[in-house]
């Protein structure tokens, strides 16, 4: 092989490697911005897997007697405790959350409109809520 062919092949390989590296490198320009804590659709009741409105979130604008199969399936609630909640409702109604489906067992809290809460300790498994106390 001639020296010119070897130099051309090396240049080609380096160019391909550089292009591949550029394509594989993450871009900050198109990256999604981090979600702000306590993000909750206006008019909704939201729960979070982390404290202070962080982590995974689920939100509802109506009563839901079964978070795992109801109007808004909140699949992470099956194995993850709720650690914080926010009543961002528009009606002014309070919202109550329960440890069992069908608004049964223990009522964990009653949040007035605009109220936020962190649940004690590691949080609580919740399964339903209703817009009343």
How are the SSEs ordered, and which strands pair?
Blueprint: H1 3-24, E1 44-48, E2 57-60, E3 84-88, E4 95-100, E5 104-111, E6 116-118, E7 128-130
Antiparallel strand pairs: 1-2, 1-3, 3-6, 4-5, 4-7
Q: Compute the number of strand runs.
A: 7
Mean pLDDT: 80
CA distance, first residue to last residue: 84 Å
Task: List low-pLDDT spans.
Answer: 3-34
How many individual helices? 1
What fraction strand? 25-35%
What pattern of helices and strands is seen along the backbone? HEEEEEEE
The coarse silhouette is globular
Rounded to the nearest angstrom, the radius of gyration is: 25 Å
Q: What is the SS-derived class? A: alpha+beta
Strand order of the largest sheet: 2-1-3-6
Biggest sheet descriptor: 4 strands, antiparallel
Q: Residue share in helices?
A: 10-25%
What does this structure look like?
The protein is of the alpha+beta class and 133 residues long. It has one helix and seven strands; from the N terminus they run H-E-E-E-E-E-E-E. The chain has one helix spanning 3-24, and strands at 44-48, 57-60, 84-88, 95-100, 104-111, 116-118, 128-130. It has a four-stranded antiparallel sheet with strand order 2-1-3-6, with no helix packed on it. The protein is globular, with a radius of gyration of 25 Å.
């Amino acid at each position: 092989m001639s020296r010119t062919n070897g130099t051309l092949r090396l240049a080609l390989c380096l160019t391909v490697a550089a292009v591949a590296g550029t394509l594989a490198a993450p871009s900050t320009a198109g990256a999604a911005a981090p979600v702000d804590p306590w993000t909750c659709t206006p008019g909704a009741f939201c729960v979070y897997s982390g404290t202070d409105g962080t982590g995974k979130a689920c939100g509802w604008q109506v009563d839901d007697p079964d978070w795992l199969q109801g109007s808004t399936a909140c699949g992470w609630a099956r194995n993850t405790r709720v650690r914080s909640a926010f009543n961002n409702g528009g009606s002014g109604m309070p919202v109550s959350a329960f440890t069992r489906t069908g608004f049964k067992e223990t009522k964990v809290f009653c949040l007035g409109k605009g109220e936020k809460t962190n649940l004690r300790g590691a949080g609580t498994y919740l399964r339903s809520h209703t817009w009343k106390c």
